[in-house]
Task: structure prediction
Amino acid sequence: MDHPHPISLSLTKEHPFVDTYLSKPDYYHLFTLRTWEDGEPGMPKIALIVASERLDKLFPAITLATTAAISGWEAELFFTFWGLLALKKGYEPSEVSLDYQAYQDRLKEAIASGSMPGWRTVLEQGVATGRVKIYACSSSLGMFGMTAGDLEEYVDSVAGAATFLGRAKDAEVTLFVS
Amino acid sequence: MKADVTVDATFQTCPGPLIALAEAVSRAAPGQVVKLLATDPAAPSDVTEWSTGTGHKLLEITRDGDVYEIYIEVSG
Result:
């Protein structure tokens, strides 16, 4: 399959530094622009498995998903095991992984100051594009004694591994975040 | 360069500037120019990639001290 960003990729490789971009403003006019209609074949897709509700896992996963969505990509997120807790109504993930506890206050300060948007805000902005799909793992739901009614409104459906595989098989980017 | 809309995302880190830009662009009319102010060092390359994928035209990137000024023309 032809990659939809041939010019952009070569630009990135040849001109990796910001100052190089700035010194060649005329280069921008060489860009080939490309847009996708929602659901059009060839629309790039990212598929993420989110298996932890720790903030150091949620932030990068949600950042990638929403950035993809506002860039015209589809994003499929499968929340499984402890990641599922992030979708529980009334539950607010607040901890980073044990390895990174020393940085927890820095993260919270960055969020409180407004320099870093909160993960839920970012997720909702992605969902608002209509291109982010959120699946809740069915077996994890049972493990935590939850039902579909316990999940946030923006969850699209409860699903199993086969559903995720089906949705992820044509994704250009697939990541397991835990 | 003259802008119809200015978005100030200075001192916001990734993905704040791009989200702010995308929101402003979604509200703007085709042909309008949106100016993004950002201090995130990733903003020039991120907006360049974003514009290529979405079809909104990147007009110019300038820098005033630590602040990038990034101009986008909204596509139809």
Summary: Residues 1-33 of chain A have pLDDT under 50 and may be disordered. The first helix of chain A runs from residue 6 to 14. Helices of chain A lie at 6-14, 18-23, 55-70, 104-113, 119-127, 138-143, 161-168.
